[in-house]
Write a structure and sequence with these properties.
279 residues; UDP N-Acetylglucosamine Acyltransferase, domain 1; 6-stranded parallel sheet; 26 strands; 28% strand
Length: 279
């Protein structure tokens, strides 16, 4: 049997009443093999099925495997240094990272089981990568960053300090947040609720990207929701709200929007990664 078929069978049993108290060594062996496959990058919570950034789709069985690791395990006291914490899983073993040239600086980089970090990555302290997330080669996770469950981060991505990449674990059919190769996010950005960013795009600091906020794409002269096309420079602007005529808003009410333009060469130069950081 493949790991996918084993997880699918175990999910059916879980849906039919299997509990953590009833799970045996055989079930735990399946869960461990699944987590190891995630950590090796052999399976992913989502995959690109076409050429466009909108073609990303969730691998439902993978997300179910992550949920099984919560539902079929007991919460236990665990140790990390001098700290006791309570969780269903220990933190991820990081011995494999050094062999790939990936660094996580002390003393607050937290990587949960089932997370993948590629070669030549940097995790600055403090930062957090959740279960099921995929972080591609050469990507920088800066201080105070959070990479949510199942988020898919491409190669050579820059996450500015204090950036939040949301997680989408449930519902299992929904694709998670996706940042394709060579994306750069300024400090304080928030990307949530399955929003997808196309390759080579650059997002200005403190920009909120979520499917509920319109993206005014000045390249194609259209308004889109839920994704930012490839090769765009995006930043926040404010547009008039439908409640502007309310008597409580004498000066008018406004809501956030995102404006997207072509990426200029000087902008690309400003965001290119520093090779010295990875020597």
């Amino acid at each position: 049997m493949t790991i996918q078929s084993e997880i699918t069978t175990l999910w059916d049993r879980y849906q039919n009443g299997l509990t953590a108290a009833e799970a045996s060594d055989e079930e735990y062996a399946t869960l461990e093999a699944f987590l190891e496959a995630l950590e090796a990058g052999e399976v992913r919570a989502a995959e690109k099925t076409g050429d466009d950034v909108t073609s990303w789709e969730a691998n439902e069985w993978v997300k179910r495997g992550i949920l099984l690791n919560f539902g079929l395990r007991e919460t236990l006291p665990r140790r990390y240094g001098d700290v006791t914490y309570y969780d269903v899983l220990p933190l991820r073993d990081t011995e494999d990272l050094g062999d790939r040239g990936t660094r996580n600086t002390p003393d607050g980089t937290t990587i949960r089981r089932g997370a993948y970090l590629g070669s030549d990555c940097i995790m600055m302290s403090p930062s957090f990568v959740n279960a099921g997330a995929y972080v591609g080669d050469g990507t920088l996770v800066d201080s105070c960053d959070t990479v949510g469950s199942c988020a898919q981060i491409g190669e050579n991505v820059k996450l500015g300090a204090n950036t939040l990449i949301g997680g989408v674990l449930e519902p299992v059919e929904d694709a998670p947040v996706v940042l394709e190769d060579n994306v750069s996010l300024g400090a304080g950005c928030r990307v949530t609720s399955g929003f997808r960013i196309g390759e080579n795009s650059i997002v200005g600091e403190n920009t909120l990207l979520t499917p509920r906020i319109p993206v005014y794409d000045l390249v194609e002269e259209t308004v889109i929701f839920g994704h930012l096309p490839a090769n765009r420079r995006a930043f926040t602007r404010y547009v008039e709200s439908s409640v502007s005529d309310h008597e409580l808003f004498e000066g008018g009410a406004y809501k956030p929007a995102v404006v997207a333009t072509d990426v200029a060469e000087e902008t690309l130069e400003a965001t290119r990664r520093e090779e010295a950081l990875r020597e």
